User: Which sequence fits this backbone?
């Protein structure tokens, strides 16, 4: 699928950040980003997909530890993520709790810090009516900004489509799982990419169960996209590795497959995945600083 982007000329030193999704696997990303924050590592722009957006927003608001903290604090609360919520509301991740109570009351986002941070922050969503990716810049996380984050992280079958201005959206990973080409098209020729799978991982064609087939009957374009998602994803991995070899991309990924499901809320696993991100980032810190210093 050909994607159209609006390119903005930037300084040759402008640096981008790409955040893959993967549900609770993205706690690895949170660990990496917390090390970045604690060491003053900054970027000019970031683009996130799904959980990469939900956890990446804490980087823009400069709130290290927040993603791990609230996931552990509310892991046993059925009003946060549960089958009960899915059956009652159509959303496994409860919309009211996660996008209204949590960011405003239970573990507030620092909306002012988010707004004042000059880093541009984009979320990838999938327009399910047209079957195409949509890249929305979230310059203010309050209100509609949270709605775009929710849309980016709304997985088929586990979430209802999110309506914004009459359009319907689901998880951005359906159409653009690792949006390196997008951030490059915006003028950021040097980028750091954080993956939530090991470097040698390649996606196999997914088995579509009966429940998913029933869900996708109402969304034929999504069904078509899901059938070829493994091809899109693996092509993106090939491109990322080629950019890494050229020296234009710094790649950060787990050393081995993370032992956690997308929706797993087991505390020991969440902590282990987060600590894997912290450890990986700390081990690469000198190389990351060298990569960034070359461009400054």
Assistant:
């Amino acid at each position: 699928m050909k994607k159209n982007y609006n390119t903005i000329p930037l300084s040759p030193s402008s640096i981008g950040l790409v955040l893959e999704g993967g549900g609770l696997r993205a706690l690895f990303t949170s660990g990496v980003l917390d090390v970045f924050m604690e060491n003053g590592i900054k970027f000019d722009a970031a683009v996130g997909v799904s959980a990469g957006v939900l956890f990446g927003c804490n980087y823009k608001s400069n709130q290290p530890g927040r993603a791990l903290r609230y996931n552990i604090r509310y892991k046993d609360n059925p009003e946060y993520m549960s089958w009960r919520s899915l059956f009652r509301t159509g959303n496994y991740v409860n919309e009211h709790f996660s996008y209204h109570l949590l960011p405003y009351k239970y573990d507030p986002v620092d909306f002012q810090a988010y707004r004042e941070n000059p880093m541009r922050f984009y979320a990838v969503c999938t327009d399910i009516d047209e079957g195409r990716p949509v890249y929305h810049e979230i310059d203010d996380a309050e209100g509609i900004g949270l709605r775009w984050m929710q849309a980016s992280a709304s997985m088929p079958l586990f979430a209802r489509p999110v309506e914004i201005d009459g359009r319907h959206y689901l998880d951005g990973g359906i159409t653009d799982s690792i949006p390196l080409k997008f951030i490059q098209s915006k003028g950021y020729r040097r980028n750091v990419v954080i993956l939530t799978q090991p470097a040698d991982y390649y996606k196999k064609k997914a088995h579509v169960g009966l429940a998913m087939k029933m869900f996708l009957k109402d969304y034929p374009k999504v069904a078509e996209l899901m059938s070829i998602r493994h091809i899109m994803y693996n092509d993106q991995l090939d491109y990322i590795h080629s950019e890494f070899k050229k020296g234009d991309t710094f790649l950060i990924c787990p050393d081995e497959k993370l032992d956690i499901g997308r929706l797993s809320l087991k505390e020991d696993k969440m902590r282990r995945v987060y600590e894997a991100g912290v450890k990986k980032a700390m081990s690469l810190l000198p190389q990351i600083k060298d990569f960034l210093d070359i461009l400054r």
